[in-house]
Each structure stands twice: as structure tokens, then as C-alpha cells.
Amino acid sequence: MVANRLYGHWLQRVWHDAGKPTCPDSTIIGNIMKPRPVLDTNILVAGLASQRGASFALIERALLGHFALVASPALWLEYASVLKRSDILLLHGLASSDVDDILNALAAVVQPVQSHFLWRPQLRDPNDEMVLEAAVNGQASCLVTLNRRDFIPAAEHWQIDLRLPGKFLQLLENPS
């Protein structure tokens, strides 16, 4: 399949050619603090569906260690579950094993956090709770999502910066 060949070339270019990302336990590059975002599942879906958008660019930059990706085990399982749904596999054109490879590569740069569920529910969509929990418990610098509206009340309460993928890319390119 064409998508599988493209994915292979992309992974080789980003992962192998660039070398391994900076140490995943570090949030500092030189004297500069790296952003610590949580990526909503919709960012991974969009990024794998198209190599042209900001979501894809965020996946590339995560693999290159340009920021410290924050995720909980529950959120990671959500990523895998959603990305391997039959309708999503058709959307991005990857095989389930390709999704595993991408998630394994991302796992090498993730900063894992444990979630505490004592304050549920906070959001209308129960599937968004684990994204919010990862952001709060991981003390994320922001939550990157294509669906800001559903997170707004809880984000204000927990003082979490909500960003669209393009806005987060701008932050990476111009940190000041």
C-alpha cells in the first residue's frame, strides 16, 4: 500500500536519520525549558491522516524531541484504541502494525504521568477526561486539541492553556 511505503520513508527520515531524540526524562535543552504538552487523540488522528497539516508537524517534532510529550497510560491506550479503529485505519491508510510502530517511537519520547480520578467528571465527553487528567497530573504546559470548546470550562478551572496545533507550532518556532 502506498501509505505504508510513505510511512516507512517518513519514519526513517524522522527517527533514524535524525538520530534519537533528546533524553525523554529531560525538559531542558541547553538553558531553554521545553514545552510539555498533552496531545489530544484528535491530533494524532489528524496527523496520521494528512502529512500537510500542523498535527503531522507536531508528531514529527515530538519524535525529534522538540518538546516533552506528556501522557498517561490511560491516554496511551486511548491513542492505540482510536488509531486502530477500522474507520480510522481507513482514514489514514496505515496498517495496525504501522500504528504500533508510530506509538512505539512516540513512547520513547513521552514523559509518563499517573492519573488520579478523584475529581471526575469535569467534561461533557467522558473520553476527554483522560486527556484532561494527563494534562493536570502531568503539569502540562498546555493541551493541544482540535476540540477546544469541550475543554474550556475545565481548562479555566485547572488553568490549562488550550492550543490549536498551529498555535502550538508557532510557540515552538518563536518561544519568546
Tell me what you see in this structure.
- The protein has 176 residues and is mainly alpha-helical.
- The chain has one domain (2-19, 35-173): 5'-nuclease (Rossmann fold).
- Helix content is 53%, strand content 10%.
- The strands form three sheets. A three-stranded parallel β-sheet has the order 3-6-7. It has a two-stranded antiparallel sheet with strand order 1-2.
- Helix 3 packs across helix 9 (165-173).
- The relative contact order is 0.18.
- Mean pLDDT is 83; it is low at 1-26.
Task: Quickly list its features.
single chain, mainly alpha, Rossmann fold, three-stranded parallel β-sheet, 9 helices, 53% helix, disordered N terminus
Q: Gyration radius, to the nearest Å?
A: 16 Å
The main sheet orders its strands as: 3-6-7
- What's the CATH class, please? Alpha Beta
Count the helices. How many? 9
Distance between the termini: 43 Å
Task: Note the quaternary state here.
Answer: single chain
The strand count comes to 7
Structural class: mainly alpha
- What is the count of distinct domains? 1
Morphology: globular
Layout of SSEs?
Blueprint: H1 2-16, E1 28-29, E2 32-33, E3 37-39, H2 41-49, H3 54-63, E4 69-71, H4 73-83, H5 86-92, H6 96-107, E5 110-112, H7 129-137, E6 142-144, H8 148-158, E7 162-163, H9 165-173
Helix pairs in contact: 2-3, 3-9, 4-6
Brief rundown of the structure:
With 176 residues, the chain is mainly α. It has a single domain (2-19, 35-173), classed as 3-Layer(aba) Sandwich (Rossmann fold), CATH 3.40.50.1010. It has helices at 2-16, 41-49, 54-63, 73-83, 86-92, 96-107, 129-137, 148-158, 165-173; strands spanning 28-29, 32-33, 37-39, 69-71, 110-112, 142-144, 162-163.
